[in-house]
Amino acid sequence: MTAQRACGVGDVAVSSAVRVELDGVAIAIVKDSAGDIHAIGDTCTHGEISLSEGFVEDDAIECWAHGSQFELRTGKPKNLPAYEPVPVFPVTIDGDDVLVDVQNPVKL
Locate the Rieske domain: which residues (predicted)? Predict the structure, then answer.
């Protein structure tokens, strides 16, 4: 795995997201309502909007502009207007570091 540090665990509050860029790829690091950390592509597939500026509820993040929700584990949209998924990246927690492998997106 070619994981690299994206942020610290404490940099992301529960039910929120932060935007990072790794190897030129915009990533949303999201902590869901259960406290699990996910890494997904930060750009909504419907409107080129940053998902990290959206709303996190349970296991999904919602684009603030058009309301599409994306599942954090699969990247699949839960509702329209988006119909294309966002990429999901492997996450490893190493101490206080959130490591993300942008070279090997999860294949679902």
Answer: 4-100
Range 4-100 classified under CATH 1.25.40.10: no
Domain boundaries, the chain: 4-100
Give residue-wise pLDDT tens across range 46-103.
988 999 999 999 999 999 999 999 999 999 999 999 999 999 999 999 999 999 999 9
Does this model's pTM top 0.85?
A: yes
